[in-house]
Amino acid sequence: MPKIMQGKNGVILGVANNKSIAWQIAKKLLEEGANIGYTYQDEESSKKALSLFAKNDAVFTCKLDVCADDDFTALNKKIEENFAGKLDFVVHSIAGGPSLEDLQGDFYNVSRHNFLKSMEISAYSFAAILRNLAPYMKAAESASAICLSYLGSERVVPNYNVMGVAKAALECSARYMASDLGRDNIRVNIVSPGPILTRAASGVGGFRQMLKEFAEKTPLQKPVNTEDVASAAMFLLSELSAGITGQTLFVDNGFNIR
Ligand code: NAD
């Protein structure tokens, strides 16, 4: 049987280590034949990611801090050199900005600086990356981009605070971009997993308690499996979802309906 992503070229942003959701998605795409270039935030915080890339046939790696405009130019060059300027998929799996204090207690204590930083890294960066990569995605016959969000974008989840506000902006940006880019056969969707213990998640106050209680409250009565998240991501990145754009796909064992 042909592999679902055979010959597809893509970029994944947001691998920090082997627990990262982005890495689980990468593994699934590699199994299905994709060619992947990876970005990483900086050498210091991405040592584990860089060793994963080296062991797993990365087509290229590129430093990209989403707050640094020059890094975007470096990524363009890598895509032109390695993928002949044609890009079939993009995974945006990035969140950051708040301090540990912002992720506990009351939302309204957030400072102006941390509010704006959270918006820049966790929401604006998706528009920045797609604006930069759209010319390469247009060069492909069809292309697909996803970002990662969380239910805290639409419900008040204790301690998620400013990240919930940023995720609301991220999801809304994804819908606007789905509308903008649809004419070029570029689809833009959102994957919204339930809680998974990763480096970013461990900063949210009471996260381990939330994980403990989560399984009991879901219709499927089990914790979120990262492989299930990766399968859903691959579905949205592949031609299997050719008629779907601007949507949020929850991979949370049904938690959001209760
Ligand atoms: P993670 O810590 O493994 O990944 C977060 C990534 O963001 C890291 O690779 C980090 O380097 C990157 N990043 C932060 N600031 C950056 C910057 N300025 N420039 C470039 N990269 C930057 O954690 P994760 O849980 O895998 O998070 C991935 C995505 O999934 C995030 O958008 C997160 O909000 C979302 N998500 C996570 C959960 C969960 O429970 N873990 C649930 C729903 C959604």
Structure description:
The protein is of the alpha/beta class. Helix content is 41%, strand content 14%. It has seven helices and seven strands, in the order βαβαβαβαβαβααβ. It has helices spanning 21-31, 47-55, 69-83, 112-139, 161-181, 207-217, 226-237; strands at 9-13, 35-40, 60-63, 89-92, 143-148, 186-193, 248-251. It has a seven-stranded parallel beta sheet, with helices on both faces. Helix 1 links the parallel strand 1 and strand 2. The longest helix is centred in the middle third of the chain and has 28 residues, at 112-139. The N and C termini lie far apart (39 Å). 43% of the residues are buried. The mean pLDDT is 96. It binds nicotinamide-adenine-dinucleotide. The site of nicotinamide-adenine-dinucleotide has 27 residues, from helix 1.
Alpha-carbon Rg, integer = 17 Å
Number of strands: 7
Average pLDDT metric: 96
Helix content: 40-55%
Listed once per kind, the bound small molecules are: nicotinamide-adenine-dinucleotide
Subunit arrangement of the protein: single chain
Low-pLDDT residue spans: none
Provide the descriptors you would attach to this structure in a database record.
258 residues; seven-stranded parallel beta sheet; 14% strand
